């Protein structure tokens, strides 16, 4: 079956931050140098070839897009300065926008103004919605769940999660549908056993353990200590977020089980509180380093930052920092005046972050493991 | 590497013809050694000299160990040193080394030798070297003979040392036997006419004419078309300098007209050629009213007749469909486009170039036409300059923008042209789609063999150069053709513009696909080559030619038909009709010798007597 070439894809990709891929003459140095592009695989080269010819379907059905951890080794080696690493990142944004049927992801990725206004408005709306049910608070100590009833926050969170989950499932469905529609000849037949192996690999080895990011994508020239290396910054950010998500869930779980009502004062060593504190510190460390590196353009993988990068990182950082400050404030002898407004901001940003997962950079948390699963299954 | 896959930058000539090996000297004789001559053009080779009284030196070379590892060189020397006439017989480590040559020179002087035999490598490699040794020592160079005991013995019989040695002894004996019958020969000297004929008034011929005139040679410039200029005269901007071809030609024509030494014959053709190197008489038919034929005396002839563009057959790569055109046709379109690109009145918003149409085909022209990749990249840039929105697809097998032309390729891509590499065995298919537009279906190797459909407004078939149809001229000049149909030079590196016909030179794209810069360069090479023989006023030719014994000749005319060079004529001598052979016209091919029923023709250097003696010498060993 032949595909009609469509050169309109190129200006479209440029809106997502793609560099001048017409400079690419398909020499394949990028694929050869890529630590993740195994024998027979030909990303990033083939991805940029798809874009040159406007092979939209082929591009959007390539799970290889999600193999890349953005080390930028290819860009460094590219003889024509076509910047394949930036192209891969742009292609992922393009994919996220294409799998999303609401057009929201497209607008968030391509318009700085829209992204700014939308995120601020969403946070404001959520804050205002919560404020509309607030109760006068006792001034002596901070009691957030007196201020806004915990039920209300929990229910709002559940709704946000449900909305997010639905959108994520739709996006995943779009991706999987495309990947399946283009079966590779010669790919081995999938079995349950292989499926289990691929799942363990994608979620465990690659996503949670970050094994390949750590081992294969390490910059050979990087002489930084381990806590400053790219993989660890990402690792800290990811586990920080997962830890906080876990702490929040556990806290909610404890209330559901009647062990502890949300908002009950606990000592700092209380397990759930301790988990939240450590995770929060990790998240703040990770996001701060990420932001500083992007601002300073201090390494090759942080040279180009787009609206998607800034929106995502800023929300993560604000959610992390406000949460951490609020926790410290709980142990202050007197309640500070900024306590309740900051609480509103924290919860609203966290909710917005969750709601926007499928529409921005955060979407990689589910697209990447599924894509890696598909690639592993393919062998 | 098959011929059509040669690097085009390294293939100056029409690709892949046999020809001589690379040789260390530019003026090698392609024939082998050449002792012997006849007195006054008569045969009877041994006449006047007592073969048994010859004083011959024999040198058997070790060639390091190349020979002596397999051939017992001392045994060879021992076997031949008692041969009649052999005064000196030695082994030598490297006959061609300074020490080896000095030893020979010393022996020739001290022993008063009059014949020299070296048993070593192929004469192709060192016949000139050892003729030089003879000449420096006061011996006639044609008294030297070479036996090839390396290629013919040691290298071929590595498994049989004894057999190799026996064969070497036989070969050396044969050569010694022949050397007893050699005669001193002198090069033939012919006076030369200081004028040249240039056939073809394109960029090559025009520039060569100017070069000839400036070096002081008269020129007859013959162009078949009524106008001078050829292909380049029709072109607009050309790569890599962007100057218009039309303007370039106008400038050259102006320069040609400034030089009274150049006589221009436009609308004219060469209809006859007689004479021989240095003194050709050519007939030029000028299509005037009434047509007249002019006779011109020239010393050399430069053929610069150019090329034809490949014409695809109906149906080949969509030929015949509206909107499918060849590269020269598109060049004409783009050269004459102002504001926007249109074809047949329709705007062109997208176009596809199909490369290698008619070139590098297993069942057609196998050669690479060399200029087309660069020319198409250049045209693509021109299209982008005219209208950057035109989408251009280059469908290719390999891109060969050699040398600096790589920059054109890079620039074309920078302007947005997309290059699509298709498999050799699956050329693009051009069809008309449902809407009546053109569609090209092609497999893209770079995206993992995706089949693409490209809707386009215009398809340009990138057609190459093919030999021009010139049978009449080829017949008159006896020009040798290569397998590809282009004219054949003697040696692509060492004698790049000379042909097997002395004094007939080739230049430009008639020799094989070339861009205009390369064509002009070869035109100027032909000027230099002409000047190097014509400016002296005389030329020395090899004396290894056929001779007739007039007493034996009965003028049956059989030799006349055998001669491919027209060197034999009828002569009245003492009331008898006999054949006579022009020494300057004869190439020494020997074609006439076996045709003669009276055995009246002999070939200097290869006389019957010498060959018979050689066979006897060789057989002496075989019989033993």
Give a description of the structure.
The complex is a heterodimer of chains A (379) and B (624). Chain A is mostly helical and 379 residues long. Helix content of chain A is 64%, strand content 1%. Chain A has 17 helices and 1 strand. In chain A, helix 6 (84-99) runs antiparallel to helix 7 (104-110), helix 10 packs parallel to helix 16 and helix 14 runs antiparallel to helix 15 (307-330). The longest helix of chain A has 32 residues, at 150-181. Chain B is α/β, with parallel strands linked by helices and 624 residues long. In chain B, 27% of the residues lie in helices and 24% in strands. In chain B, the strands form 10 sheets. Chain B has a 5-stranded parallel β-sheet, covered by helices on one side. In chain B, strands 14-23-17-18-19 form a 5-stranded parallel β-sheet. Chain B has a 4-stranded parallel β-sheet with strand order 2-1-3-4, with helices on both faces. In chain B, strand 17, helix 9 and strand 18 (391-396) form a beta-alpha-beta unit. In chain B, helix 1 packs parallel to helix 5, helix 6 packs parallel to helix 12 (516-534) and helix 9 (372-386) runs parallel beside helix 10. The chains are: A mainly alpha (379), B alpha/beta (624). Strand 1 (3-4) of chain A pairs parallel with strand 22 of chain B.
């Amino acid at each position: 079956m032949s595909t009609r070439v469509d050169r309109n894809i190129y200006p479209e990709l440029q809106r997502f931050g793609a560099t001048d891929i017409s400079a690419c003459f398909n020499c394949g140095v990028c694929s050869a140098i890529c630590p993740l592009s195994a024998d027979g695989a030909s990303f990033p080269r083939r991805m940029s070839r798809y874009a040159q010819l406007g092979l939209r379907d082929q591009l959007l059905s390539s799970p290889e897009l999600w193999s890349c951890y953005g080390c930028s080794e290819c860009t460094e080696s590219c003889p024509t300065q076509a910047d394949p690493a930036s192209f891969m990142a742009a292609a992922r944004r393009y994919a996220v926008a294409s799998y999303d049927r609401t057009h929201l992801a497209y607008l968030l990725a391509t318009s700085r103004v829209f992204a700014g206004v939308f995120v601020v408005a969403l946070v404001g709306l959520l804050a205002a919605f919560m404020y509309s049910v607030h109760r006068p608070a006792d001034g002596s100590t901070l009691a957030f769940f007196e201020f806004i009833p915990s039920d209300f926050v929990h229910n709002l969170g559940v709704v946000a999660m449900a909305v997010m989950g639905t959108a994520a499932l739709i996006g995943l469905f779009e991706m999987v549908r495309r990947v399946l529609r283009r079966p590779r000849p010669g790919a081995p037949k999938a079995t349950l056993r292989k499926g289990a192996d691929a799942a363990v690999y994608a979620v465990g080895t690659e996503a949670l353990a970050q094994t390949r990011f750590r081992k294969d994508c390490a910059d050979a020239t990087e002489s930084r200590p381990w806590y400053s290396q790219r993989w660890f910054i990402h690792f800290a950010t990811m586990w920080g977020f997962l830890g906080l998500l876990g702490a929040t869930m556990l806290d909610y779980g404890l209330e559901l089980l009647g062990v502890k009502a949300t908002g009950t004062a606990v000592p700092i060593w209380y397990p759930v509180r301790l988990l939240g504190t450590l995770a929060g510190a990790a998240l703040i460390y990770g996001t701060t380093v990420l932001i500083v590196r992007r601002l300073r353009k201090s390494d090759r993988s942080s040279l180009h930052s787009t609206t998607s990068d800034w929106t995502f990182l800023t929300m993560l950082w604000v959610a992390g920092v406000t949460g951490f400050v609020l926790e410290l404030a709980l142990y202050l002898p007197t309640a500070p005046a900024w306590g309740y407004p900051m609480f509103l901001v924290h919860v609203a940003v966290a909710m917005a972050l969750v709601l926007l997962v499928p529409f921005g950079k955060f979407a990689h948390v589910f697209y990447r493991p599924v894509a890696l699963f598909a690639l592993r299954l393919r062998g | 590497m098959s011929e059509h896959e040669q690097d085009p930058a390294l293939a100056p000539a029409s690709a892949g013809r046999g020809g001589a090996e690379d040789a260390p000297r530019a003026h090698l004789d392609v024939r082998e050694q050449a002792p012997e001559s006849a007195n006054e053009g008569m045969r009877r080779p041994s006449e006047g000299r007592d073969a048994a009284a010859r004083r011959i030196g024999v040198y058997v070379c070790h060639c390091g160990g190349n020979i002596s590892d397999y051939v017992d060189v001392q045994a060879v020397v021992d076997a031949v040193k008692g041969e009649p006439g052999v005064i000196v017989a030695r082994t030598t480590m490297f006959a061609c080394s300074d020490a080896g040559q000095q030893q020979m020179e010393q022996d020739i002087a001290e022993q008063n030798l009059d014949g020299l035999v070296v048993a070593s490598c192929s004469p192709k490699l060192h016949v000139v070297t050892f003729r030089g040794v003879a000449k420096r020592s006061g011996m006639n160079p044609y008294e030297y003979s070479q036996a090839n005991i390396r290629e013919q013995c040691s290298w071929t019989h590595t498994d049989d040392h004894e057999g190799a040695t026996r064969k070497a002894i036989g070969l050396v004996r044969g050569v010694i036997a022949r050397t007893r019958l050699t005669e001193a020969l002198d090069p033939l000297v012919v006076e030369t006419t200081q004028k040249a004929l240039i056939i073809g008034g394109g960029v090559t011929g025009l520039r060569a004419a100017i070069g000839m005139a400036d070096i002081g040679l008269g020129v007859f410039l013959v162009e078949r078309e009524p106008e001078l200029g050829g292909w380049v005269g029709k072109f607009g901007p050309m790569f890599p300098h962007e100057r218009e071809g039309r303007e370039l030609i106008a400038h050259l024509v102006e320069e040609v007209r400034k030089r009274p030494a150049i006589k221009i014959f436009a609308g004219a053709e060469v209809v006859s050629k007689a004479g021989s190197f240095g003194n050709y008489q050519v007939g030029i038919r000028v299509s005037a009213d009434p047509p007249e034929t002019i006779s011109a005396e020239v010393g050399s002839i430069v053929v610069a007749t150019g090329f034809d563009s490949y014409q695809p057959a109906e149906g080949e790569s969509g030929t015949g469909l509206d909107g499918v055109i060849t590269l020269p046709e598109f060049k004409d379109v783009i050269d004459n486009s102002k504001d926007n690109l249109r074809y047949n009145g329709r705007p062109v918003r997208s176009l596809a170039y199909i490369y290698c149409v008619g070139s590098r085909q297993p069942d057609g022209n196998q050669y690479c036409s060399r200029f087309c990749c660069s020319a198409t990249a250049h045209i693509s840039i021109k299209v982008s300059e005219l209208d950057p929105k035109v989408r251009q697809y280059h469908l290719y097998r390999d891109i060969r923008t050699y040398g600096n032309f790589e920059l054109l390729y890079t620039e074309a891509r920078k302007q947005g042209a997309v290059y699509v590499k298709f498999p050799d065995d699956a050329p693009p298919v051009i069809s008309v789609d449902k809407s009546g537009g053109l569609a090209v279906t092609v497999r893209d190797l770079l995206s993992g063999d995706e089949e693409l459909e490209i809707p386009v407004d215009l398809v340009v078939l990138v057609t190459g150069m093919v030999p021009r149809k010139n049978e009449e001229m080829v017949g008159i000049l006896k020009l040798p053709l290569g397998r590809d149909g282009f004219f054949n030079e003697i040696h692509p590196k060492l004698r790049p513009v000379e042909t097997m016909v002395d004094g007939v030179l080739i230049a430009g794209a008639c020799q094989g696909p070339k861009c205009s810069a390369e064509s002009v360069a070869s035109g100027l090479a032909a000027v230099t080559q002409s000047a190097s023989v014509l400016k002296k006023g005389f030329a020395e030719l090899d004396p290894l030619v056929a001779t007739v014994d007039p007493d034996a000749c009965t003028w049956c005319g059989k030799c006349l038909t055998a001669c491919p060079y027209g060197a034999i004529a009828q002569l009245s001598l003492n009331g008898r009709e006999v054949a006579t052979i022009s020494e300057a016209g004869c190439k020494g091919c020997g074609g006439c010798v076996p045709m003669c029923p009276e055995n009246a023709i002999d070939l200097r250097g290869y006389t019957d007597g010498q060959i018979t003696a050689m066979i006897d010498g060789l057989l002496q060993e075989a019989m033993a």
